[in-house]
Amino acid sequence: MNDNPALDEAMKMMARHNDNKTETHYFDLQESEKTLVQTAGRIYGSYVEAGLVTPENKDEYINTAIQDAIRIASRIEDIVSEAEEQIH
To answer: How many CB atoms lie within 10 A of CB 69?
Structure first.
């Protein structure tokens, strides 16, 4: 150990990670990104529920769900901006 407790803690965490050989990923998303993830997940879930998703086309449907979520968010942003302009 050395004189830097933060470094010691980081080294312990790295050792635990290496011992477990995990593939866990952590994301630091902004609120708007979290909302898009949730929306895209719901859209993708509806594709799955409708029986459209197969192992062969799942990536295509994931991409489509993400694009749909972004399109919805963009359209909402445009409508809100237009409404705000009309108020002023």
So the answer is: 20
